[in-house]
Task: inverse folding
C-alpha cells in the first residue's frame, strides 16, 4: 500500500521521456545466420535523469579520464536489460522562457536497482555523443 502511494508521487517528478534500445539476436530465415540488431523495445517512457559528480574510473589517477555519473529513474514495471541504450529527451528552458528539446544518449552496463516505487539505472554517456 505504501509503495503504490509513493510510486505515484515519485512518477510525478518524471519530466523527461526516453526510448530504450536493446541488442536483440535475430535469425535470418534465408541464410540461417543469427545477427545482433539494435532494436527499439520501449518508446516515450516517462523518466528522470540525475547527474552526479565526476567519477574517476579505476586505474592510474593521473592518466584516467573523468566520467560523469548519471542515474536514470524509471517505473519498476518496465523491464530493462543490462547493456541497453537510452535516448532521453529533456526540455531545457532558454533565457526567454522557451523550451528547447535536447537529446541525451546513454548506455548502461549493469542490471538496474529495482525498488517497489522505482528503478535506478546507472548509466554513462555514449562516447559518440560526449
Result:
Amino acid at each position: 500500500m505504501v509503495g503504490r502511494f509513493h510510486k505515484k508521487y515519485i512518477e510525478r517528478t518524471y519530466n523527461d521521456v526516453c526510448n530504450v534500445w536493446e541488442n536483440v539476436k535475430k535469425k535470418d530465415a534465408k541464410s540461417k545466420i543469427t545477427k545482433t540488431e539494435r532494436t527499439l523495445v520501449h518508446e516515450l517512457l516517462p523518466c528522470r535523469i540525475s547527474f552526479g559528480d565526476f567519477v574517476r574510473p579505476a586505474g592510474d589517477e593521473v592518466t584516467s579520464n573523468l566520467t560523469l555519473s548519471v542515474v536514470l529513474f524509471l517505473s519498476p514495471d518496465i523491464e530493462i536489460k543490462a547493456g541497453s541504450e537510452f535516448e532521453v529527451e529533456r526540455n531545457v528552458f532558454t533565457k526567454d522562457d522557451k523550451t528547447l528539446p535536447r537529446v541525451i544518449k546513454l548506455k548502461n552496463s549493469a542490471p538496474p536497482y529495482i525498488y517497489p516505487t522505482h528503478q535506478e539505472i546507472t548509466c554513462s554517456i555514449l562516447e559518440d555523443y560526449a
Remarks:
- The beta strands are 16-27, 34-55, 67-74, 85-93, 99-108, 113-114, 119-125.
- The first strand starts at residue 16 and ends at 27.
- The chain has a mean pLDDT of 83.
